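## Example record

The block below lists the input lines for one assembly entry, exactly as stored, with component labels intact.
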Amino acid sequence: MQKTVIGSKKLFLVFLALGVLLLLSSWGVLQGPKNAVISVLSPTQSGFVSSSNIFGDFFYTMQKIGEFKDENKKLQEENNSLTYELSQMQEVQRENGALREELKFKENLCTGTECIDFKMGKIIAQSSDGYGQSITINLGSEDGAWMNQAVTSSGGVMIGKIVEVLSDYSKVALIVSPESSVNCLAQTTRANGLVKGAYGMGAKLEMIDQSEELVSGDIVITSGREEGIPKGLLLGKIQNIEASPNMVFKTAELELFADFGHIEEIFLVESK
Amino acid sequence: MNDRINYYIFLPLIFFAFLLETAFLPSLIWGDIQPELVLIALIASVFLSTSSDFLYTAFLLGIIFDFYFGASFGVFTVSMVLTSVFASLSKDRFMKEESFGKIIGLSVSVMLFYNLLYLCLLAFAFGAEASFDSAFIWKKIFFDSLYAIILIFPVMRLISNKKQ
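Predicted structure tokens for the full assembly:
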């Protein structure tokens, strides 16, 4: 077999070009070329993503068909209980409004997701490498996207946040990516911490003070302490709590609500 | 230009592999290990190469991946360029004649090299914030090698100029 001669000149050229690009990237000059490359490839990629969703849904349905019956029953029960809770909450809200009126409350307070706007977008590309996971979406600075803005799938489930904004596109680090860390709250115990992604390990709830209580199954939501991420976006449920007196902080694994395999539309969250 | 690679097949194949890897497969097999189609095509071209033009291919592919998904700019580019150099050197050292077994063995070692290099670069980029799951890493290396074993030979046959 013929040997390959790796020219040192070629190798030098490649690493020189890489060095220049790294420098340009650190100065933020590469935004234009990045946008141009993605613009050229995105129409074809969009087509592939759409057809992939059709195939994906089909295979998913085939795979899950056996589980659907049980899940349907469970969901019906859950639906009944949620309807009851909703009616209770509406009562509380009405009562709350009346009390506020009585107290002459002047502030424009937002309850739940009432003051949050969502802007819909589409996925252009998804990273395939299993270590760090990110997606590229078709909304950029010209559409009002900004750094660290929360991105959700339908139903207020947070899937990630924007880590890079180009004029027409943005890169979103998913919550399972190590690039991402989100300030959060455990809904019942109000324990405050960070949801961080880890290579191949989903996401973990970290930096929970030893004095705080964690309960398995408790729902974790965003705390609203970060700019661009409103309070109350759903993240996941607490599982496998790790706590020992030797550790400075408690940690826990999260069962995420986001189904990353079946995200059809994404929403940029604009809190007012 | 290289006389052993049919660029009329190789370039569209790389483009198609990129589209499959970034836009089609993630929805089908998300969360589990997907085949690194672009890398497999790149390795196949390196095995067939008699000149070092593959460096430019590796560089351009790395840049495109960095544009799209680079957690830290340059990680994909460095990984792909060094992996292609490793593949080329290994081929010269161990593949005196083209045999199925040697191609498979080298593909597996190149995949292992790529994964370890990529993880080292990620750890370097993220420092103390990086946490790794060793079980997942070994699973990824296993599946990457498996996909390489399945795909490398057909890809080499497809892009090769000489019909054997």
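Residues 7-159 of chain B form a domain with the Arp2/3 complex 21 kDa subunit ARPC3 fold (CATH 1.10.1760). Chain B has one domain: 7-159.
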